[in-house]
Amino acid sequence: MKDGLLWAPDKERQTHTLLAAFIRAVNQTHDTQLSGYDDLYAWSVRQSGDFWQQLWQFAGVIGDPGESVCDIDPEHPNRDSHWFPTARLNYAENLLKHAEQYADQPAMIFSGEHEVARTLTWRELVDQVAAIRHYLDMQGVQPGDVVAGYLPNLPETVIAMLATAALGAIWTSTSPDFGVDSVLDRFGQTEPKVLFTSDHYHYNGKTYDCLNKAQQVVDNVPAIERLVVIPFDGDRPSLPAGVDNWQDLLAKDAPPLRFTRVAFNAPLFVLYSSGTTGKPKCIIHSVGGILLNHLKEHQLHSDVRPGDRFFYFTTCGWMMWNWQVSALASGATLVLYDGSPFYPDAGVLWRLAEQHQLTLFGTAAKYLEALEKQGVTPKDDYSLASLRVLCSTGSVLAPEQFDYVYQKIKSDLQLSSIAGGTDICGCFVLGSPLSPVYRGESQKRGLALDVQVFNAQGQAVEEQKGELVCCNSFPNQPVGFWHDTDGSRYHNAYWNKIDDIWFHGDYVRLTAQGGMVFYGRSDAVLNPGGVRIGTAEIYRHVNQLSEIMDSVVIGQQWQNDVRVVLFVKLAAGVTLDESLKQAIKKTIRTQCTPRHVPAVIAEVSDIPRTKSGKLAELAVRDVVHGQDVAQLSALDNPASLDQYRQRPELTE
């Protein structure tokens, strides 16, 4: 391993990538001599309008692109410019454009904890989308109306979304593990007209009812006119009067599927922020922005092509669900899974990968860390010959997990540590099938995104830690926030630090290779004595200790300064004695930084995380300081915060 190099694509692999084909198309169309990713990136930022126009043609987008690529606002060219202002298209039409060509081939494969797969062909997918669109038409759903899913990660969830998009309406969703209050915080704002739910779902070997919670949502959101229930296991559920059964909707005659084309910047999805600092922000994403950006990220950054098998471990409450579904537009087969990734054992997703010959496997960084802790070696137990790309997101992927992937999963693999978020329903930093993978680094900045790192003085820097910013406009910027009539909440969320510059809130470093190293959220940076360090640097070393299952670190206000406090979840049978505390401190002192050795190390039985698996560092910090946590319902395990309140060792 030279200079951290873990993998590089061979020449033959590079030549046959869609990214290489795109570079050839750019050179031919624009009379350029681009060679390799870095050349293309520089051109795409310099000529971003030409880039997005070229992508529209290269990816075969169906629709009218209009006469203008971008209307540039002279006062705020980054924040307020509008892409493809006269274009007309339909998201569902583009996701289903391969259906006729691949009619009898799988469009979606679903498996759950019982590991019994069911397949839906492209022809069946189109027929079912047509039936549900017809139902929504009969309910009076029109462009601009909201349709919601309180659903597991089922094929029917994708169908309901596509039917909604086909008629130009807006889709929003959350997963069934969300409590009623959490759902009301979301759907109570967006006021859907129709709600889809499931009768139940399975997780970790247990069955959970959905109907009672869904009915409570209906009772408390007056805008909901109809409730539709999808049977998770196919058995016909017993439903109260006035509730519609999904199976009945499919049985009715429906006209052929039609698509209502809408403006490029018409709303498609409403996604929700985690809501840990107040009511969740309802982030509106556009039809064209989502489609174009996901085509870019799938085809150019991940080399997704027709016939691929595309899998991402996600729920419908995370933006990665929306991201994975768009792979249909590239002709890929979606492989969906709903349930625990460790039930009945840690091999369940790798059996899925082997059985269905996955080409892209997506997951969260924490999952890879957990596999390593458990000593799982997929390469020895499963055939992964078809797997080309492994994506990781949700939190920082530590360098040690890079090693784990190449040593224990597959050595010839594009490992893409991708990062962006719900805010853009996509990535600022992601992979490149033409470029090497270096240990601990995300491969490249996203094409046509002028991603830079700013220091505290607002200056662009390299090989220094700072704030991740984006210094140009891009099509998948949010349309805005729901009910944010004057745009102030949207402005304050991203644009209020330096005029017309998007501040994303990640603490990062741009490397000499053009990659990015992440150190955690900038609002959770530790700053004792004025020396800053990202929390991920602590987790990287502490979580590698065999005695530690998980941890969370915060800065506690203490004697006119800040001191570092580390909470640890221990492995079974381990005691947090003085010897272990000293071992943890030595690890941080020698492998991380002597300036950030914890002043206090305390044991907890659970680490609070959001529904999407992100560490709730700010919630812990608030509790430690005796402050209220604005939205406990945003957490997957809110009761865990009780362990952090009024700890005697935090007053000493």
Automatic annotation (TrEMBL):
Residues 37-94 form the Acetyl-coenzyme A synthetase N-terminal domain. Residues 97-469 form the AMP-dependent synthetase/ligase domain. Its EC number is 6.2.1.16. GO terms for molecular function: acetoacetate-CoA ligase activity. The keyword Nucleotide-binding applies. The keyword Ligase applies. Keywords: ATP-binding, Ligase, Nucleotide-binding. Pfam families: ACAS_N, AMP-binding. PANTHER family: ACETOACETYL-COA SYNTHETASE. Belongs to the ATP-dependent AMP-binding enzyme family. This is Acetoacetate--CoA ligase.
